[in-house]
Design brief:
The chain is mainly α. The protein folds into two domains: 92 residues, Arc Repressor Mutant, subunit A (Orthogonal Bundle), CATH 1.10.10; 83 residues, no CATH class. The protein has seven helices and five strands, in the order ααααββαββαβα. Strands 4-3-5 form a three-stranded antiparallel sheet. Helix 1 crosses helix 5, helix 2 packs across helix 4 and helix 3 crosses helix 4. The longest helix is centred in the middle third of the chain and has 28 residues. It is elongated. Belongs to the TFE family.
Length: 194
């Protein structure tokens, strides 16, 4: 990753965001997230000029080669890992040597940040364009249309709903969006040199 190893707090945040994405995709694929984390840490130490094969990982870590390949495939699909083909020194069979590509990792994280930004913008629009009512007992939140349909009574407990002022929530969303937009601009300058 750009600036890695310099103790930069922004790089630490970026790395943690990437780790969270990897864990989520591992679980979604039925892969142990701890193994995915461990293999990511391993690839962080691998020399990109040499790479590491799934067979070498199995010998080092004890993970099955098939599981290692699944995790490496997640990294490849995220465009944070690449591989080069080589020959097994004894058998001559084709072997794949994996390594992290920091530029691709930065691009994958940038794409993820842009996806999050779009979701935050959609949520902000939803908050701005709706009027909300809330149950004072259990905190259940309703849009005006839903509250109107049920005569402004909570469907869980029957309590009368009260109008909700969501302006502070809107401000929180606006601040998050603004910070994320700045972070994205900074990342783009770092990656693309603009």
């Amino acid at each position: 990753m750009s600036g890695e190893g310099n103790g930069n707090n922004e790089d630490d945040k970026s790395l943690e965001g990437l780790r969270q994405l990897i864990r989520m995709l591992a679980v979604k694929s039925g892969i142990d997230e701890a193994m995915a984390d461990d293999l990511f840490d391993l690839l962080l130490t691998v020399d990109p000029e040499k790479g590491i094969s799934d067979e070498e990982v199995e010998q080092m870590k004890g993970y099955k080669q098939a599981d290692v390949r699944k995790v490496f495939r997640i990294f490849y699909d995220l465009r944070i890992a690449s591989y080069r083909r080589g020959k097994h020194p004894d058998t001559g069979a084709t072997r794949y040597y994996w390594y992290l590509d920091s530029r691709d990792a930065d691009l994958a994280l940038l794409r993820r940040k842009k996806q999050v930004l779009e979701k935050l913008k959609m949520r902000l629009e939803y908050e701005r364009s709706n009027e909300f009512y809330v149950c004072p007992k259990d905190g259940t939140r309703y849009t005006f249309d839903y509250a109107y349909e049920y005569q402004f009574t909570c469907q869980k407990c029957g309590t009368m709903l009260v109008p909700e002022d969501n302006s502070s929530y809107i401000r929180v969303l606006e601040n998050r969006i603004s910070r994320l937009e700045e972070e994205i601009k900074r990342d783009e300058r770092q990656i693309f040199g603009h």
